[in-house]
Each structure stands twice: as structure tokens, then as C-alpha cells.
Amino acid sequence: MAEIQDIIHKLCDTGSLTREEIIRLLENRDSETQALLAEKASAVAREHYGNKVFVRGLIEFTNYCKNDCYYCGIRCGNKNAERYRLSVEEITECASYGYGLGFRTIVLQGGEDRFYTDDMMVDIIKSIKKEHPDVAVTLSIGEKSFESYKAFFDAGADRYLLRHETADFDHYAKLHPKNLSAENRQQCLYNLKKIGFQTGAGFMVGSPYQTFENIADDLLFLKKLDPEMIGIGPFIPHKDTVFADEKAGDLNLTLFLLSVIRLMLPTVLLPATTALGTIDPRGRELGILAGANVVMPNLSPVGVRKKYALYDNKICTGEEAAECMNCLKNRIGNIGYEIVTDRGDNIKYKSMKEGK
Ligand code: SAH
Q1: The pTM is what?
Q2: What are phi and psi of 33, to 5 degrees?
Q3: Element (DSSP H or E) covering residue 237
Q4: Ligand 1 contacts CB of residue 218 (under 6 A)
Q5: For the residues 229-239, what does the mean pLDDT come to?
Q6: What is the DSSP string of 149-179?
Q7: pLDDT digits (tens, 9 = 90+) for 171-225
Q8: Does the beta carbon of 219 lie inside 6 Å of ligand 1?
Q9: Which strands, in side-by-side order, build the sheet including 136-140?
Q10: Closest Cα to atom 1, ligand 1: which residue?
Q11: Whose CA is nearest to atom 10 of ligand 1?
């Protein structure tokens, strides 16, 4: 069996590990290896993206959802959730407000809400792109047909976030009701890539029943899919879900995995998530120092922010978008990085598109 040092060298040199090597690395994780991996990973991020941190303005436009994912606070079975929807005008106004603050990526995220037909989504995408041609539009609205995804792409959407949640089919079934399958979710990701989206996958760290074997399979799935973006953050319980009494995911394991992911997929766009900032006041800064290079401040109207509660105690739900931006600028500046307001495309994707 290879020594930990050999595994780390292999990871840094080749970006590839076997399932057994990943499991061994996780089992032998300590503060020293974590620090070493963070140093290597942040150096790789800097090599590709300098000390730039990209910002994405996140508009949480609906908390209605037809799905009943056991971990999520806006699951349809949560009768205590106070539901809201933003109108097409509210969404585009919010995007324009974000543009004024310097955002050049707008992320439209929501529950799977049938109220918004494909035609409405197409209208929203087109009107944002028409008003602000230099803005990248990212969608995060769940599982749809190939045709729907294609219509969004043809309307001008640039990127799509759809975490695979867990690559293991049995684990997936423990986190979701029967009508949802890992197979369909993964197929959606391949469809998104085929259509040409910059595609984002990812998973929660420390979700109930998750094992190191599951995490190894998640990392191998990501390596195979080769997405342009990867979102990982700690699982955090929500009081009105099946998993209300489960433990939250671990800060250090999340940071460790951010570093491993950066080393496995060097050019990937990797956010230091709000969930990470929620379990630790310095979570997002630590995420950047571990190899992340994106932050996604909340751009939703203040009046609805508290209602988009995927988990308990979410941060930044009382502040105006402008305050969020200033706060993040300071935080990121204090650790020697700089928030930049360009589109922040994946560089590998960009050079491929430009035929380089
Ligand atoms: N409906 C969209 C958006 C889902 S919300 C979709 O299906 O993709 C975005 C992500 O938040 C989810 O993919 C999930 O990984 C994460 N999330 C949901 N509940 C959470 C919780 N309790 N703790 C941490 N992350 C959670």
C-alpha cells in the first residue's frame, strides 16, 4: 500500500488517484497534510487564475419546489416554508441592479418550480442578455429535458449548475424520494455538457450516511465528467426536514476536499460556498486559501432572502447586495486576493471555444 506522501505526490503530479488511494488519503487526513494540500492547491489556482476571485450574483428567484429531497429546507413536504416567487420583471431588475454593482455573472437559482415555463425562462435569459450582453447567465433550476436545456442555451444561457449530490446510487436513494434518481441526474449533467454549457456538478460534504467510499466515488465521478465548475459545501441540517437532527458536515474535511478537487481538476471554477461561511465565520476565506476561486454573494431582494432557507442559520440574509459585495471585497482583500468583476469563464473552456 502506498505511503501517504507518495499519494500526495501522485495527486500533485498527475491529478489522478485510484479509489483506494483517495480513501487512504481521507482516512489519514491530519492538519499537516491538510496544510500541505492547501498550499499546493492554492498555488495551482494562482497559476491559472492569479490572485483573482470571481464573484457571481445569486438571485434565488423561487422557493417553490416539486421535489422532496430529504435534506433541503424548501422541499415540497415542508409545510412551514413561506413560499415566494419573483416576477419576470423583479428578476430582470435584480439582475440590472447586480450589473450596476459590478456583477458580470448572474446566477438564477430556484426550486423546481413548474410555474416558470421554458418560455418564461427563455424570456428572462434573453432580456438579461439583451440589456447586458457582457453578462454571463448561469442557471441552477434542477433536472429538465434535453430540449429544455437546449432552449435555455439557445436563448443565451452560458452555464448551468446541477450538483450530482452523490455519485453512489444507493446513497442517492437514502437522500431522495423514489421518484428521483442518481441516474437521471447524471444523465442531465452529460446532456448539459453535450449542449455546450459550462457545467457545474458537486456534492454536500457530510450528508447523512456519506462514507469515505462515497466521497472517493464522487471525486472519481467529477474527474470523469470533467465539469467546468464544482460546488461543494458542508451539509447543514434544516429543522423542518427528515434530517433535522443530523450532524452538520465538517469544516476541515470540506477544506481538505476543496484542495483535492483543485489538484485533480486544476482549472475548475470552485466556489467557497455560503454553507462553508455558515459553519465557520471565516469559512469562505479559508476556502479560498484551500484552492477555491469563486464567491457567490446573495443578490436576491432582502425581503425574500430568509425564505430561501435550504438549511438553518444561513448567513447574509439580512444584508443588501451592496453590503454583501463590500464585506466580501474586504474579506478577500485581507487574505491577499482580489475580487474581480469580469465574467470569469473557465479558462480551459474559453481557450477551447476560441480554438486555441
Ligand atoms: N433546485 C436546484 C437548486 C438546488 S439548491 C437543483 O436541483 O439543482 C442548491 C444546492 O444546495 C443543492 O444542490 C444541494 O447540494 C445544496 N443543499 C440543499 N440543502 C442543503 C443543506 N441542508 N445543507 C447544505 N447544502 C444543501
Answers
A1: 0.98
A2: -65, -35
A3: none
A4: no
A5: 98
A6: HHHHHHTT--EEE---B-S-HHHHHHHS-TT
A7: 999 999 999 999 999 999 999 999 999 999 999 999 999 999 999 999 999 999 9
A8: no
A9: 57-62, 105-110, 136-140, 159-161, 198-205, 229-234
A10: 111
A11: 163
Report whether pLDDT(313) > 60.
yes
139, 144, 180, 204, best to mutate for ligand 1 pocket (most atoms within 8 Å of CB): 204
Type of residue at 291? G
Question: Which atom, in ligand 1's list, is nearest to the CA of 141?
Answer: 2
Provide the CATH number for the domain formed by 2-353 in this structure. 3.20.20.70
What cell does 254 get?
470540506
Q: What confidence tens digit (pLDDT) does each residue in 267-290 have? A: 999 999 999 999 999 999 999 999
pLDDT at residue 127 is higher than 60: yes
Which residue CA neighbors atom 24 of ligand 1 most closely?
235
Instruction: Give the domain ranges of the chain.
Output: 2-353
200 lines ligand 1 (CB under 6 A): no
Q: Is the pLDDT score of 1 beyond 70?
A: no
Q: Give CA separation, 218 vs 80, 88, 158, 225, 266, in Å.
A: 32, 36, 25, 10, 17
- Verify whether ligand 1 is closer than 6 Å to residue 236 (CB atom): yes
